[in-house]
Design a protein that fits this description.
By secondary structure, the chain is an alpha/beta fold. It has a single domain, classed as LmbE-like (Rossmann fold, 3-Layer(aba) Sandwich). Strands 1, 2, 3, 4, 5, 6, 7, 8 and 9 form a 9-stranded mixed beta sheet that branches. α4 links the parallel β2 and β3. The longest helix is centred in the first third of the chain and has 18 residues.
Amino acid sequence: MNSYRQFVSAFANLITNGKTLPLGNVPPHDKPVSQAAAPVALIFSPHPDDECIIGGLALRLMREDGMRVINVAVTLGSKKERQAGRLQELKNACDWIGFNLEQTAPNGLEGINPKTRSADPQRWAGAVETIANILIKYQPRVLFFPHELDWNSTHIGTHYLVMDALKSLSPGFTCFLVETEFWGQMAGPNLLVESSTEDVADLIAALSFHVEEVRRNPYHLRLPAWMQDNVRRGAELVGGQGGAAPDFTFATLYRVRQWRNGAVKEVWTGGKQLGAKDSPAEMFRSCQQMNLK
């Protein structure tokens, strides 16, 4: 008898049983209260739900280091009939997990993709100004946004939107850039961040508040498997080819760099693996000190 059959069946049963769990109807829980003067991390989400999918590090910065995490709703999706509903779902998700929410426009920005950037420069310039104003308003320490090859046209558009907004600011503007992946894998991530079981469960619970989206496709139930596969990939992409895998169960891959003096700067050589007991804020602090020398 194949001794792995029960092991695989347990995974299949988890998905089946997960489909019976409530969508969004999760009791509220204690959340840290962010101080107005706390350092800010901005998540530039191409669509409502991205804030939960890639939010492992942002959640840790909020919970462990007291940072104020603000999700910027770049778009509310392309289906106009769903935009109001998606905004309400997004508000519910952010409220449950403890992220603040910043809207770019009542119905989100439209046409955030490479085609608009090249074919409609006036419209693109208006969107860039909107993002630049948000950066000036919050003076964030950390930015989360998709990498330039994240497959989905709005994800790619969001990458260039944020980068163009950064280029429009004064040379003195400085922050850490944390590029994310979901649809398209990064070839060169340099950070693997472990998430605890509690954090993963809370990210899934928040993601379930995007009710109509996960009802259509229950991708919230597959988030743990995606984060497990990140450990597999990150072991060598971040840890080095042939390196031993870290003893992580769940993790998210990122590419960390810094915006300084009007350009992107590398912050370390090789890769880093941030365990559940390591301090994310200390990682950024030591990186800042190293780059000031």
